[in-house]
Amino acid sequence: MNRPVPIVLLIFVVLLPCSSNLIATYYESDTVHDNYFKGVYADGTILIGVRFKGYPNNTISLRLIYPNGTLNFINNVTIPCNTCDPTKYNPSPLNPNYIIIWYEKSGMIMDWTGNIITSKITQSKCDKFEFVMNERSDRFLIAGYNETSQNILFAEYFINNDGTIEIKAQKNLTFNGMGIKNIIEFKIFLLGDIWGIIYKVDLEEKSEYIYNKKDAFFSLIHNESQNLNLNPSVIKDISFIGVSCISNNINYTCIYVTSYNNTLKLIDINNLTLNNTFNMRSIDLFPFINIYKFKSVSSTANIIHIIPEIGFLVEVVSNAETKYLIFNTAEIDYFDTTIKSASGEIIINNNDNDYIGDNLFISNTTVIRAIKRDKSFTYESTDLTTIIPKNNLLNNIHIKQVYPSENDLIEIYTDKMNMTFLNPIDPTIPVYISIYHYHNYEDILRQKFLCTMPFCTISEDSYSLLINLSSNVTFNIPNASYYVEIEDNFVEYKYEIETVPGIKKPKSWNIYTASEYKHPEKDNNDFIIGILRLNPEGTQEFSKLDKNGRNEFFKFMTIDLSKGIPVDDSRIYKVDDIYEHDIVTDSELLVISYRIDLPDENCFNKKSAKEIYDDLNSLIRNDKFITYLDTSNYTKNIDKGYGFQRTCK
Asked: Could you tell me which residues are beta bridge partners of residue 257?
């Protein structure tokens, strides 16, 4: 049956990162029955399989979309199996320019011109088969289970330059000593040079490990192993429609969907030996997220996709719409209980798409999604680079970047900061943000405030937290080092009930002021004398001290004033102290005068006496946030309303 040539319309648009780029749109003349979205070649060519209504079940057509936008249609390929289930057809890219179509019991290989190289890869008479490509799509693995012998035959293949295929390795493995009556279903993985298999079984008798058919065994086979017995580990509550595994150097990582509540579990496998033994551990990922159950007619549907050399993309449904979660298992230790591990996310609008789920594939760090509207097919790509979670100097993988960063030398009196997150955020309960000055191996508080208005606001796009210090004395000296600490749960994700951990490790978010600073015109005076006053409580406490106690009080007040400003302690010292009557409180309050000298060449703070005076006056009068002066026992009772007043010499 010949089909009319489809009408093709190609459109190419360049958009901003994380937006969708339109790759191509074309129209099919016949009504589509099934689509198979299976992969991308190393050169970027996309492969799609399609079956049409009214055509024989053993007929499949193929679509190749080349990187330059041209298309190649290979129509009406006959599958050499009249009894095979068409929903299990599995067309896959085979690099560099071949197509392999697995059809339940065997497979066929053709080139991009439609020339069939082989129509039946394996002649094995096994009862159940599984097929899988490796991550680079240049090798494939076939496993067949024989119910009579209870053996499982593995064979790994590769393709030569002339299109012929060869066996790289094969093994006939047994389940001896495991009490298995039958394998119900299984799934295989090709992890570098390692083979993996997950299998659900009927047991001859009850097992202390396997309680029901939702549990499964997992085994790895080292290709150099002489041991032909499978060594099983138990995986609890696994759904075969959502499971994928990837090799991470010498470790292996799997993510799967649980059968019971459709949440995610992560498995880490390590220490694989030549005897096929290994260690395995698991952890729940986002147990509050339910994974979407796609109503796909294809039993080969998958909702967990491999991002090569990075990790996984998982399709989920949340409070928003269909969402892609990106996990960077190659870099991030999701088993580290000291952090809340993050995933990047993309929200997908499926209002105008007949396909929901199992309609995408991955090319390097790009996700390609198929959009169907009646007989129109559009393919969009989205770059994942900017939303892949990564380790950073902040020890917080939820945060993409901050300003100022360690690479940003800021001017003194900078009063704006911001943080950009992997995913959209919302405010939560107010917690404290603290900024410290690190000087002479001492951490000195510059500013501490609750992250709420007016200090904290969220940007219009919900990706950034804008921090307004409302102060010009936080970063107030050149060539200085500061760092920021933030308490846990200071924001939460907009579309999930997940709070973001803070920045708690000292000196993770470091900030540096530039050494260049143009001082304003200096006073004609070579020094300044100013007075401050204790409030009634401070005056009362001071009056209880004896002479030695009062001398010690003035000594440590001077030290703490120099730290709080900050200024060299050699430049500020007490001149006098007297009591004066305050008409507001109708009491005698202690007034203390201080002299501020000019800097010399050895001073770390070379600001003028007038600038030091202004900084101290601003710090004392501040009542919006907490500073070092508010925490010291010797300065916490300074009268804020009185400030630091300049006097005549």
From this structure: 239, 264
- Token digits for 403? 């300003």
Cα–Cα distance for residue pair 91/610, rounded to 1 Å: 78
Angle of CA points 506, 512, 518, to nearest 5°: 150
Residue 575 CA from chain centroid, whole number: 57
Alpha helices in 62-130 (DSSP H): none
Instruction: Mark 614-632 as b/e (b = at least 16 C-beta within 10 Å).
Output: bbbbbbbebeebbbbbbeb
Contact yes or no for 399/413 (Cβ under 8 A): no
> Each residue of 360-384: b (16+ CB within 10 Å) or e?
bbbbebbbbbbbbeeeebbbbbbbb
Token pair, residue 270, equals 């390590």
Amino acid at 198: I
Sequence spans of domains, the chain: 399-513, 527-646
What pLDDT score does 320 carry? Answer: 47
Conformational region of residue 114, where left means phi above 0, alpha means psi within -120 to 50, and beta covers everything else: left
> Distance between CA atoms of 384 and 346, rounded to whole angstroms?
9
Residue 224: predicted pLDDT: 83
What would the two tokens of residue 424 be? 């959209």
pLDDT at 449: 96
| CATH (one of 1.25.40.10, 2.60.40.1220, 2.60.120.330, 1.10.510.10) for 399-513 | 2.60.40.1220
* E strand spans, 193-334: 194-203, 216-222, 233-235, 238-248, 251-258, 264-270, 279-285, 304-307, 311-317, 322-327
What are the distances in angstroms from CA 474 to CA 289, 441, 563, 624?
A: 41, 19, 13, 13
The amino acid at residue 333 is: D
Peptide bond into 404 cis (omega under 30): yes
Burial of 439 (0-12, 13-18, 19+ CB in 10 A): middle
Using an 8 Å Cβ cutoff, are 272 and 222 in contact?
yes
The pTM assigned to this predicted structure is 0.85
> Which 3 state secondary structure label does DSSP give 96?
coil
Q: Which candidate, 349, 348, 390, 382, places its Cα nearest to that of 365?
A: 382
Here the tokens at position 74 are 């290979």
- Over the chain (649 residues), what is each successive 10-residue block's mean pLDDT? 42 44 88 84 92 91 90 93 87 94 90 91 83 91 88 91 86 79 89 90 71 81 86 83 81 86 87 90 77 47 84 73 86 84 82 71 88 87 91 90 93 95 92 95 95 94 94 91 95 85 89 85 76 96 96 97 96 95 92 95 92 95 95 96 89
Q: What tokens does 279 get?
A: 């260690």
Q: Tell me, what's the pLDDT at 176?
A: 66
Residues contacting residue 455 through CB under 8 Å, at least 6 positions apart: 433, 449, 467, 468, 469, 470, 625
> Which amino acid belongs to residue 465?
L
Bridge partners (DSSP) of residue 529 are 595
DSSP structure class, residue 353: -
Give the pLDDT score at 313. Answer: 92
